[in-house]
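Researcher: Let's try something more involved. This one mixes different molecule types, so please make sure each is placed in the same coordinate frame as the others.
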Amino acid sequence: MFQILNEDGKIVNEEDVPDLSDEQLKELMRRMVYTRVLDQRSIALNRQGRLGFYAPTAGQEASQLGSQFALEQEDFLLPGYRDVPQLIWQGLPLYQAFLFSRGHFHGNQMPEGVHAVSPQIIIGAQYVQAAGVALGMKKRGKKNVAVTYTGDGGTSQGDFYEGINFAGAYKAPAIFFVQNNRFAISVPVEKQTNAKTLAQKAVAAGIEGIQVDGMDVLAVYAATKHARERAINGEGPMLIETLTYRYGPHTMAGDDPTRYRTEDLDNEWEKKDPLVRYRKYLESKNLWSEEEENKVIDQAKEEIKQAIKQADQYPKQKVTDLMANMYEELPYNLQEQMEEYKEKESK
Amino acid sequence: MAQMTMIQAITDALRTELKNDENVLVFGEDVGKNGGVFRATEGLQAEFGEERVFDTPLAESGIGGLAIGLGLQGFRPVPEIQFFGFIYEVMDSISGQMARMRYRSGGVHHSPITVRAPFGGGVHTPELHADSLEGLVAQQPGLKVVIPSTPYDAKGLLIASIRDNDPVIFLEHMKLYRSFRGEVPEEEYTIELGKADVKREGTDVTLIAYGAMVHACLKAADELAENGINAEVIDLRTVSPLDIETIIESVKKTNRVVVVQEAQRQAGVAANVVAEIQERAILHLEAPVLRVTAPDTVYAFSEAEEVWLPNHKDIVEKVNSVMNF
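Model: All components are placed in one shared frame. Result:
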C-alpha cells in the first residue's frame, strides 16, 4: 500500500512527498475541512427534508479531494453518486449541487469550463464512458485525462472490467478510481470478491494498478499526479484503489450501518481519519492552527447557508422542463402533452 | 387472519416457499445480513442459512446469469434486483436468455426463476430507482410479468410465481410496501398467474389498471359514484400475458373503458390493452378507449414527481370524457 503520511501525521515515505507549496498544502486542508462541514450540513438538511438524495462523504475526503487536487481544469470528470465534492471543487456551484440532490435538472447543467457529467446513479456505467472520453481526448491530441470513480462494489460490475480493458487496449488517458470504503451498502469487500486487492484487477486488463492509503491525502494526490503524467505521456490508463471508509450510512434513505458494521471497526477507521493526521502534519510545519480551521468552518457554514437559500429561490422543476429536455425538437406526442401539462401546472 | 403490509406478505411468501421446497434460493444485493434495502428478506438468512439466502457481489447482470445457471441445476432461484431501474444492467439475462431457454432447448430446459424488483414512484427515490419499466419486459415473449396491488394478492401471486416453471418478473410497487395493511391468511395459498381480478364491480365504465394505479382507480370510482357513475375496476395483476377474457367480458357489460398506468404513455401495457380491446370488442364500444398515463419523459424524480404521476383526478377527468363522448 502506497503511503506518505502515517496515522500520526508523520512522513513515512520521504522520496514520494509531493512538491507542493505551503499555500497548496494549506489549501488541501481547507478543502477537506470545508467538505467535512458540507457533509455534516447536508445530513442535517436532508433530515429537515430540504435536500433529496444524499450519500454521505465523511471519511473519504482524502480520497476525493486529494485526487481532484491533482487534476487540471481541462480534465474530464465522471463521478459516481458519492463524488459530489470533486465536482464542487472542480467548479460546480454549491447551490447546483443541492439542486442535483433534489433531482432538479439545473443541478446537472455543468457551468462552462467544468468538464464533467453529473454523478452516475447506475453502478459502474461511468467506467466504460471514461474509456470513451479518454479515447476521444487521445484522438483530439489533448494532453488531458478522463477521471472516474466507483466504490468497491462497483468492481464487480461488468462495466468495470469492460472500462479498464477498453482503455487499456486503446492506451487511453484514463484514471480509474476505486474508493474502497469496505462496504457496498451492507456487503463487505471480502464477500464482494475473492481478490486480495482491487488494484490487482488491473493486471487482467494489462494496465497499471496501485493500492493507496485513501486516508492519506498526500499519497492520493501523489498517486493521481503520477497517473496523470503517465496517461498524458501516452503510457496508458491506471487503476487506483484507495483504502478508505465511509463513516455514515450508504445514503440517507434509510440505510442503517449498525446492521452490518461493528463499533470496533468504526473506531479502528476513525483513528485513521484523514483530517486528523493531515492536521498534525501541517501543525508540525507550523502551517495550521485552530484559528485557521475555525475560519474555514465559519466560511463553509456561511456559504452553505447562502447556497441553500439560492437553491430554494431557484424556480422549481416542472414536468414541462423535462419535456423540453427530452429531444432537440419536440415530437408530436410531447407537443400535445406540453399543452396538457402547462395547464396542469398552472392549477 | 393476519393483518399485513405488502412487504410483510412478500416476506411471508418467501418464507413459505423456502420452507416448502429446498430448491428455492433467495439472493441478491444486500438481501442477506441486511434483509434487503426494503427489508423484504428480513430474517430469512437467519432462519434458512447462508446457503439458501445470500448476498451477491454487486452486479445485476451476474445475478441474472447466476439465476439461469442455478435454474439449469434444478434450483428455483428467486433473485432480487434492488431497484427495477437497474434492469437495464441485466436485460440480456432476462430477455435474451431466461425468456428463451425453453424455446432454445426445445422444451428440454426451462427457467423456473422469479425475479423480484421494487419499482414505482411517489417515494422520492433518486434517478433510475422509480421507473415503471414493465412495458419493456412485457414485450418479451417467454416471460410472465406480475404486479400485485394488495398484500393478499402479493402473497398468493408470489407463491404461484415461485412454483411456476417459466420465468416470472415480479414487480413490487414501492409506495404500496407499507402504505396500508390488508388481511392475509397465514396458511399458504396461490393466485393463478394470468388472471385479472375485478376489484370493484360496476356497470357504466371499466377502469383497467395494475399496481398502485388500482388504488387511484378505486378512489376515482368512489368519487364518480357520487355523481352517479358506476365504475368497474379491473386489476390486471399479471400484465403479460393479459387476461383477455376478464377484460372483454367487462367491456361488453360497460361499453366504456379507461386504461390507467403509472408508466409513460408511449408503447407499454396500456397501449396493448387498448389494441386488444379494439380488435376483439370494437362493436361493444360506445366511446374510444382512453388512457391515463404519465407523460413521455424520463421519470421526474423528486421535485416534479407529484405533477408527473397520474392520480385519481386525472382518471375522473378521462372517465367524464368517455361518458360524454
